[in-house]
Design brief:
By secondary structure, the chain is α/β, with parallel strands linked by helices. 33% of the residues are buried. The chain is built from 6 helices and 11 strands. The strands form 3 sheets. Strands 5-4-3-6-7-11-10 form a 7-stranded mixed beta sheet, with helices on both faces. Strands 1-2 form a two-stranded antiparallel sheet. It has a two-stranded antiparallel sheet with strand order 8-9.
């Protein structure tokens, strides 16, 4: 007979948490910490505390999509703020299993789906708020991901976070430069995206590290208006107008080519 989380003792909860593998989100599941020795401390709570003041406190009636939901920390916080519906997606079944257990223990209703960011169009709906936290720099095709979010799932707000490296300067740049101009590319406030060929911090999925100017430029290029920069690497954005006609592309499969 399978026990429900409500029937488990603290010791049984602890055993179940450890059986689900290493957690990246340090959640408090009725006194059991899922990642008590996290290398970033009490993560993501310490990070969330830096910018939660800029986030809507009353989400009553709102729909939320949490992309790369991991163990479910942000999805759970959205429900705590009254969101009517929260959908969490992740490509890693291990994290989804952790999120399922966490939401069951806490009695939180979150829809969890195995899906990667490039497939968000399959959801067939737009959400009032889309969380895109800690995913961007893990993607081989980051601007495509932003285009797909704009086109398919963001109705109103995008809450965005990414690893950034390089200069934190942001300056005024001309809309165009002659091809003879070279010096502009060496200025610290020019948008730059650092490509990581092998590994960074021991993680082969860390592909990109933009500077702040690049993050902001890419968000604008995808059609998002920057409303607030409440904390380092965090941006509150609103779906606006694309500056050009360019948007998401959809490669054709070889068998579809006649």
């Amino acid at each position: 007979m399978v026990m429900t989380p409500d029937e488990m003792t603290t010791e049984q909860l602890e055993q179940r948490v450890r059986s689900l593998g290493e957690w990246f989100h340090n959640l408090d599941l009725k006194g059991v910490r899922t990642a008590p020795h996290h290398f970033l401390g009490d993560f993501p709570t310490v990070f969330w505390n830096r910018f939660q003041h800029a986030f809507p406190t009353d989400l009553k009636g709102k729909s939320v999509l949490d992309i790369g939901c991991n163990g479910g920390f942000y999805s759970i916080e959205m429900k705590r703020r009254g969101a009517a519906r929260v959908v969490g997606i992740d490509s890693d079944e291990r994290y989804l299993a952790q999120a399922r257990f966490a939401t069951q223990v806490l009695g939180v209703d979150v829809e969890l789906l195995q899906m990667n960011v490039y497939d968000v169009g399959a959801l067939g709906e737009k959400f009032d708020i889309v969380l895109f936290m800690g995913v961007f720099y893990h993607l081989r095709h980051p601007l495509l991901a932003l285009d797909l979010l704009y086109e398919h799932v963001v109705k109103e707000l995008l809450i965005f976070q990414t690893l950034e490296r390089g200069s934190d300067e942001v300056g005024e740049l001309a809309r165009d430069y002659p091809i003879s101009e070279r010096a502009i590319f060496d200025r610290p406030e020019y948008p730059k995206m650092h490509f990581i060929e092998y590994r960074y911090a021991g993680d082969w999925t860390n592909w990109w590290a933009p500077n702040r100017a690049c993050t902001e430029a890419m968000l604008r290029a995808a059609g998002f208006d920057l409303l607030e920069h409440p904390s380092r690497e965090v941006y509150i954005c609103r779906r606006g107008q694309r500056p050009t006609a360019w948007g998401a592309v959809y490669p054709r499969h070889p068998e579809s080519v006649q």
